[in-house]
Amino acid sequence: MATATKTATRKPSAAFMKPLTPSTTLAAVIGTQPLPRTEVTKKIWEYIKKHDLQDPANRRNINADAKLRPLFGKEQVSMFELTKIVSGHLS
């Protein structure tokens, strides 16, 4: 039996690529322009890396600075919590 090979490339979901408006708290970090979730995540990670906010002892944790503290609501979050926190700041 021969199996058919997939030649079509996978397209991202339209809902996934829909530009979302950041809250004022999130806008302080990434800007006020509506962006798809993928770009929001990308911009947050750019900010985290630019300001060296990953915990040196455990790189999975992100330390909050003055801009991220209101967004996180605490001093440190794990990278797994980050997605949930950011989702609450998009509409």
UniProtKB/TrEMBL annotation:
PANTHER family: SWI/SNF-RELATED MATRIX-ASSOCIATED ACTIN-DEPENDENT REGULATOR OF CHROMATIN SUBFAMILY D
The organism of origin for this protein: Corticimicrobacter populi
GO MF entry, a single one: isomerase activity
Keyword hit for Isomerase: yes
Pfam families for this protein: SWIB
Xref: Gene3D superfamilies: SWIB/MDM2 domain
Keywords annotated in UniProt: Isomerase
InterPro entries registered for this protein in UniProt: SWIB_domain, SWIB_MDM2_dom_sf, SWIB_MDM2_domain
Protein name: DNA topoisomerase III
Domain spans labelled DM2: 15-91
